[in-house]
Amino acid sequence: MGPFNFFQSNPKAAGPYSGGTGKSMEDAIKISATSSVSGIQAEYAYVEMQCGRRDFDWTLELQTLLEPEGPDGKHYDLLRVKLKDGTLRDFYFDISSFFGAY
User: Fold this and answer.
1) Radius of gyration of the chain from its Cα atoms, rounded to whole angstroms
2) % helix / strand / coil in the chain, to the nearest 5?
3) Which residues of 51-68 are buried (b: 16+ CB within 10 A; e: fewer)?
4) Phi-psi label, residue 29: left if phi above 0, alpha if psi -120 to 50, beta otherwise
5) Residue 11 CB contacts under 8 Å (≥ 6 apart), including other chains
6) Are the beta carbons of 58 and 52 closer than 8 angstroms?
7) What ranges do the domains of the chain cover?
8) I need a labelling partner for 27 at 20 to 30 A (CA). Which of 1, 10, 18, 19 fits?
9) Shortest CA distance to 69 belongs to which of 28, 97, 98?
């Protein structure tokens, strides 16, 4: 059996997502997950739902952990993808629910 693919097993994948549009840190998509593995899979699944298949419709340009901002101490992840037409698109995720959980 190959690696678990969150997007294939949950094509609608509405469960772990709440919050904003992901266009900025202030409007980040909140992911509810219990481990880093499932949380990161949910991030990529979300991008696939928005942009299509990875390495066909888009490629990952950058994934980085952003320093906590403000007194809330939340943790954020930024995924920057390059679409087939060359457009760059950023996705901000609030990863506080699973940051550091293995």
Assistant:
1) 13
2) 25, 30, 45
3) beeeeeebeeeeeeeeee
4) beta
5) none
6) yes
7) 16-94
8) 10
9) 28
b/e 10-21 (16+ beta carbons within 10 angstroms → b): eeebeebbeeee
The residue among 86, 2, 82, 97 whose CA lies nearest residue 47 is 82
Return the structure tokens found at 97. 């629910």
The answer to whether residues 63 and 77 touch, using CB atoms and an 8 Å cutoff, is: yes
Sheet containing 88-94: order of strands: 17-19, 29-31, 88-94, 76-83, 58-66
d(CA 43, CA 10): 13
CA angle 88, 41, 71 (to 5 degrees): 75
